Amino acid sequence: MHCLGLMSGTSADGVDAVLARFDGPPQHPQWSLLRHHHQPYPPQLQQQVVDAGQGAPMPASLWLQLAEAITKVQANAAKACDPDGTAELVGCHGQTVWHRPPAQGARGASWQMLQAPLLTHLLQRPVIHDFRAADLALGGQGAPLVPRADAALLGSTEGWRALLNLGGIANLTLIPPCGGADRHAAVLGWDCGPANSLIDLGMHHFTSGAQHFDKGGAMAAQGRADEGWILRWLQEEYFQLAPPKSTGRECFGQDDLNRRLHQLNGAAAADAIATLTAFSAAVIAQDLEHLRQRRGIAPIELITAGGGSQNPVLIHELRRRCRGTQLDESSRLGVPTEAREALVFALLAWWHQQNHPGNVPTVTGASRETVLGVRVDPA
Predict the structure, then answer these.
(1) Same domain, yes or no, for 212 and 177?
(2) Which of 46, 159, 167, 210 is within CB 3.0–4.6 Å of 306 for a Cys-Cys bond?
């Protein structure tokens, strides 16, 4: 079955679309990635998405316009990726504008903005969307949703395999080995904290909006990281939590950046960006050390994907801080770094069609497995 996957993440840089084919048993699918396309958000729309994800007040009319604009970009991405209309099904994550994990006995909630009936009409194909809702209803975090799909798509190796998505937020998937005592262990995963979110906002701040990300790590490469503040920041509450845990721009957004820049006490732009870049790597390294201490698990490889995998300074910091773990890109396993999450949502849509569960309760904290997503058919 040919499926389209559409993903727009917390970096808010646009929509990644993939066209993929899936066959075979749902738990061990045979798959091929046929095409990938990236559709950037127009600059004004990108800024609106970022503002919305940080709690900026907007009248209802602007929320409606934002939902329509996001949906149209999703449709354009789908058409560019699949111009011949070969996909029979579309899986669309939508654009997260707010994520509230469960806390103090209260159920969590998450808003992925999309007008699914409009997208279905524009594409004239069924759309599966709202993937987090079922897991949230069962008491889960609703995120991350990639671990089960990662395990099915990429498989296992001789030791624990870690997959790291470096989008706006960094999230990890841990796939158990194919042999040995841990071969029947559950897939693990969680949101580590900021990957690119603070770096991107910092670049926007220091360049007065001229640059939205640190291309090639050029700014960070010119600076020196403040290890003292990085060590202090690593002690903050979120970074000490044990999984399940999930987060987003509502926690690591503009207000958080402003606080950290104030603490850096007027540091030069290059030093501040270098510190934020090293901090993102240090958060991941600390999580892997916590995993070793709490569960006795030490992955033998760390496979990176997402925009941050193209930042050589961030990758250098990961290599330096995650000693004993081999770093590589997901492209080595046949998944282009920018296409991985969109491929996941193509698979989740196919799993919905197959009535196959998509969540992992040990990852999200949900009370049980469930089929993810809501289907909308053309009118």
Answers:
(1) yes
(2) 167
In a 3-state reduction of DSSP, which class is residue 122?
A: helix
The helix/strand count (H/E) of the chain reads as: 14, 12
**222 within domain boundaries:** yes
CB neighbourhood size of 269 (10 A): 15
Strand 30-40 and strand 161-166: the pairing is unpaired
Residue 139, number of CB atoms within 10 A of its CB = 16
pTM of the model: 0.94
Supply 52's token pair: 């919305």
- Whether residue 318 lies inside any domain: the answer is yes
Question: Would you mind telling me the total number of residues written for the chain in this entry?
Answer: 379
Cis bond leading into 144, ω under 30°?
yes
Instruction: Judge if 176 and 103 occupy the same domain.
Output: no
Per-residue pLDDT of the chain (379 residues; tens, 9 = 90+): 999 999 998 888 999 999 999 999 999 999 999 999 999 999 999 999 999 988 889 999 999 999 999 999 999 999 999 999 999 999 999 999 999 999 988 899 999 999 999 999 999 999 999 999 999 999 999 999 999 999 999 999 999 999 999 999 999 999 999 999 999 999 999 999 999 999 999 999 999 999 999 999 999 999 999 999 999 999 999 999 999 999 999 999 999 999 999 999 989 999 999 999 999 999 999 999 999 999 999 999 999 999 999 999 999 999 999 988 999 999 888 888 889 999 999 999 999 999 999 999 999 999 999 999 999 999 8
Which residues partner with 328 through β-bridges? 303
150 located within any domain: no
Those residues whose C-beta lies under 8 Å from the C-beta of residue 12, and which sit 6 or more positions away, are 41, 46, 49, 50, 53, 95, 168
- Do residue 174 and residue 322 come from a single domain? yes
Q: What is the CATH number of the domain that holds 183?
A: 3.30.420.40
Residues 113, 246: one domain? no
300 and 371 housed in the same domain: no
User: Domains in the chain: how many in total?
Assistant: 2
User: Within this chain, do residues 255 and 327 fall inside the same structural domain, yes or no?
Assistant: yes
CB 175 within 8 A of CB 151: yes
Residue 68 domain boundaries: 2-145+342-376
